[in-house]
Task: inverse folding
């Protein structure tokens, strides 16, 4: 109470209000409850000590604190039974004693059964908790395993994506290398054509038209024309060199007078000026070569190899292969020729065909005809396989 201010007033001015009266009553009730609780504890302690003292007096621990309290209260009320030695009805007392013993035994059995049921309930609750914990452990393990599987899937997807990117980079690098080689090939081919043209016109082999030379050419009334073979007429660099040699040899056999038979203007034009002649360019050896009929493989003559077995046309049926043979003007498949032999014969026919024939077949199919011979063959095979009914389900 030291923390509260002690206000002292004279008796004639002391007064209380309603709130203070209510607080006083509440305080009394709470203190009474605490005292009653303490008194109950003291009563229990009292009868415990009474039972202990009785056991000391009679030298036998026979009565509990409950029996001591009940016997004492019955003695005070006058309802207690007479002592056994003063009771004249010994038989009734015996029956009463047997009844009490039976009742107490039954009560103990019921209490034991209740306690056993309670223990069983507790055991069942403990077992249920144990099973729940085991189930939670299983769930956690399952989740951990699923998480590990998901992480492995994600890692595999990342690896596949990385491998795909690397493959794409490799494809792009190969394509760039191919374009570089193709550019070098086109440049070399252009230089070779210019040298052939300069040789036919009597110009220096490394002559290149400049702005001054073009102005001089405009002053010439007739410019010489020559037949320059198309890109499709050359299969390899050796063909270009052979073509160049044939043109040069044929040009060297022509007389100077016939070479300038229809040149308009000066009789001796400048070396750097081109001249247009009306003479027909001589035929080359390639013309005679292309004029000869091409020999095709007979059915069954093709050799089946591992490369032909993995050809894109291997997915086609015999009927579809017959359609391809007919479109290429090739002999149809015979009864004794197997599917693998037909595919091998088509592969060998592609290898024996010229670039010009392959380009014609590609253009007829609406495909691009640019690239080397290997690329043309592969493009034609893939196109034939893509029209197969067995391949349409996979596209």
Result:
């Amino acid at each position: 109470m030291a923390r509260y201010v002690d206000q002292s007033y004279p008796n004639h001015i002391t007064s209380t209000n309603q709130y203070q009266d209510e607080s006083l009553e509440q305080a009394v009730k709470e203190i009474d409850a605490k005292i009653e609780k303490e008194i109950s504890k003291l009563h229990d302690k009292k009868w415990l000590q009474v039972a202990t003292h009785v056991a000391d007096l009679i030298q036998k621990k026979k009565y509990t604190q409950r029996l001591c309290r009940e016997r004492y209260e019955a003695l005070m009320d006058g309802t207690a039974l007479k002592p056994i030695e003063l009771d004249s009805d010994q038989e009734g007392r015996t029956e009463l004693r047997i009844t009490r013993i039976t009742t107490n035994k039954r009560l103990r059995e019921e209490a034991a059964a209740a306690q056993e049921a309670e223990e069983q309930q507790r055991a069942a609750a403990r077992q249920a908790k144990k099973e729940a914990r085991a189930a939670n452990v299983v769930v956690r393990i399952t989740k951990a395993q699923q998480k590990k599987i998901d992480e492995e899937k994600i890692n595999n997807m990342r690896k596949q994506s990385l491998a795909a990117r690397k493959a794409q980079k490799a494809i792009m690098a190969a394509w760039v290398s191919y374009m570089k080689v193709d550019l070098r090939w086109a440049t070399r081919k252009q230089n070779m054509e210019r040298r052939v043209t300069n040789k036919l016109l009597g110009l220096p082999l490394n002559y290149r038209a400049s702005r001054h030379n073009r102005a001089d050419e405009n002053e010439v009334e007739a410019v010489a024309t020559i037949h320059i073979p198309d890109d499709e007429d050359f299969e390899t660099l050796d063909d270009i060199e052979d073509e160049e040699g044939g043109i040069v040899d044929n040009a060297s056999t022509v007389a100077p007078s016939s070479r300038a038979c229809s040149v308009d203007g000066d009789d001796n034009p400048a070396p750097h000026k081109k001249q247009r002649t009306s003479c027909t360019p001589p035929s080359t050896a390639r013309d005679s070569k292309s004029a000869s009929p091409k020999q095709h493989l007979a059915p069954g003559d093709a050799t089946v190899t591992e490369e032909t077995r993995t050809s894109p046309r291997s997915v086609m049926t015999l009927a579809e292969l017959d359609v391809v043979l007919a479109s290429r003007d090739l002999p149809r498949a015979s009864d004794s020729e197997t599917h693998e032999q037909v595919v091998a014969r088509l592969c060998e026919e592609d290898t024996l065909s010229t670039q010009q024939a392959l380009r014609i077949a590609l253009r007829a199919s609406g495909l691009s005809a640019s690239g080397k011979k290997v690329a043309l063959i592969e493009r034609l095979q893939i196109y034939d396989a893509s029209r197969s009914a067995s391949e349409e389900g996979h596209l």
Residues 370 and 386 are 20 Å apart (CA to CA). Residues 26-77 form one domain. Confidence is low (pLDDT under 50) at residues 212-293. The first helix runs from residue 18 to 58.
